[in-house]
Amino acid sequence: MPGARESGQASRSGDRNARWSGGGQVRQNRLMCPAHNGNGEVSAVGRITAVLEAFRDDRDALALSELARRARLPKTTMHRLAGELIRCGLLERADGRLRLGLKLFELGQLVP
Questions:
Q1: Could you tell me which of 13, 38, 92, 98 has the fewest CB atoms within 10 Å of its CB?
Q2: Does residue 95 share a domain with residue 50?
Q3: What domain range is 16 assigned to?
Q4: In this structure, are 39 and 63 located in the same domain?
Q5: How confident is the prediction along the chain (112 residues), in pLDDT tens digits per residue?
Q6: Domain total for the chain?
């Protein structure tokens, strides 16, 4: 849209951590995930690692919201990642909760 910037609306950039603050300035949101690198980008591997490491405590199955909180990810991101990890066998659903999948055990058995 040619007039979007002049009207005070920011065009959506690739940086999801940037927020339009008016007056032509872009400010950075608080970074949620420890996988952010110095320039504000988040690696997919970092997000997945944060999800898997969220199971380090004594609980074997977590609700999606608790998993998102522990991984310090937005719930929408956690929902999308959980679906992909379930399809890959790295997470499993159990009684409405998520737990580590059997595929992780199988991969762990390959470690010498």
A1: 38
A2: yes
A3: 1-30
A4: yes
A5: 444 444 444 444 444 444 444 455 444 444 455 555 566 667 899 999 999 999 988 778 999 999 999 999 999 999 999 999 999 999 999 999 999 999 999 999 999 9
A6: 2
